Structure formats: C-alpha cells, structure tokens
Known about the structure:
By secondary structure, the chain is of the alpha+beta class. It is built from 4 helices and 9 strands.
Amino acid sequence: MTSDNEKEMFPLVDEEGNITGAATRGECHNGSKLLHPVVHLHVFNSRGELFLQRRPAWKDIQPGKWDTSVGGHIDLGESVEMALQREAREELGITGFTPQLLTHYVFESDREKELVFSHRTTYDGTITPSDELDGGRFWTLEDIRKALGTGIFTPNFENEFKRLGF
C-alpha cells in the first residue's frame, strides 16, 4: 500500500460515540472537522516500556513520525472492540490481548476531528510491524519524556501521552 483509500467509509459520531451519519476518509480529513471515531492501543511490555510505531512517509497525516503503538479508524458497522482487535492484528500482528479502556476524548487538528477511544495492554509476545508502518520499537517512558517537544512524535501522541500521565 502506498496511499490511504480516500473512499473508505467512516461513521460520524457525536461526542458520546453515538453514530450520526457516515462520510468518506477524504471528507473526514479535508478540514471539514467531521467527528469520526478512532481507537488507540498503548502496548507496554512487562518491563513498563511502551511500543511506538513509526508512520510511513506515504501517510497523508504526520508522515515519518513516531506514534501510538496502534491507532486506526473504526469502520462503518464496527464496534470499538472489533476495531481495536483488527488494528492490533493488522499493524503489529498481535492477538489474544486484553485491552483496558483508559479514556475517550475529542482530538482536533487543523485537518480533522476525532473521537479517540484510548486503551492500554501489557503484551510480551512477538510484535511484527506490518507494511502499513515504517517499523517500531519499545521506548522507556523516560526516553519518551526527554524527546517530547522535539518534533519526532505526532502531536496527537504527545497530547495523549501527557493526558494519560504515563
């Protein structure tokens, strides 16, 4: 894959997650600020290190930056749990984990507005980043804190890292 599918359909939601309509990826990412739901999964190992993925250069938003372990859009007709399991399998090749919901909140950038359902899990199995990513690795929380504000992380990840108080 070398680009995102602009025609992919996403649900539109209110701030509580109730579906209010549908729109394409292109419509959601063109500055319209149509609120659409996404899932985030913070994957920790038993040493307390946090896995971060690197976004590939072809992504339409924040290419080449380090980001949340797993992040993806909830497809039309999918539940939060279904999207979480699908994205973790697609992006990192992980299955059989138990997610814990941490929070949900609205994130807004100049291009989009997302309702983020943020989860965490502890996972010590094999992680195999897919072609959707430019790899990834575990970071100590101290190394992440030292690198905040240097421009290597997505603004969304930095915002959420601070919000969750890791």
